[in-house]
Amino acid sequence: MSVNVSPLVHIEIVVRDANAAADFLERVFGAKKTEADLVRLLNETALGLLKVEHVQLGNVVLQFIEPLSEGNDVWAEHLRRKGPGVHNLTFQVDNVTETSEVLAREGAPTLFTFPLDWGKLFGANNVRGDAAPVYMVGSEEIVGFRLELFESPLS
């Protein structure tokens, strides 16, 4: 069984300095910081553990993640073990639960889920009350990166 995915939402990259990475791409390629409202939501949700920057480079959004602690979160662990690099690719899917079940059967289990307060981004009246959490899937041993999946929260 296969599942449908949207076009790529963003490439998530763990770095030591999110601002420096974004500034470098702006200087060299004219990239622009983008999706300010989503970045603000993600930074608020991260509770001081991460700094997030989104940069539009060509037709791709790069999401830079800077771990702000030496904690045991997956981004700090990635930076410690592997250094800076791609952590995951993020896609919107029609049904995140079904998709995660298919992935698990294929050897890519869900590592964890986390909620986002989508109402802060789109307005509470525009968001489904039963919006699913975001899923982080351990597919890196199969395809070289993790998958981050979410459903549209819009009603």
Describe what this molecule looks like in 3D:
With 155 residues, this protein is of the alpha+beta class. It has one domain (10-150): 2,3-Dihydroxybiphenyl 1,2-Dioxygenase, domain 1, CATH 3.10.180. Helix content is 32%, strand content 29%. It is built from 6 helices and 8 strands; from the N terminus they run E-H-E-H-E-E-H-E-H-E-H-E-H-E. The protein has an 8-stranded mixed β-sheet, with helices on both faces.
Query: CATH homologous superfamily?
Result: 2,3-Dihydroxybiphenyl 1,2-Dioxygenase, domain 1
Q: Give me the CATH fold name.
A: 2,3-Dihydroxybiphenyl 1,2-Dioxygenase, domain 1
Largest sheet: 8 strands, mixed
Extract low-pLDDT stretches.
none
What is the level-2 CATH architecture name? Roll
CATH C-level class: Alpha Beta
Whole-number tally of structural domains: 1
- Mean of residue pLDDT? 94
In which range does the helix fraction lie? 25-40%
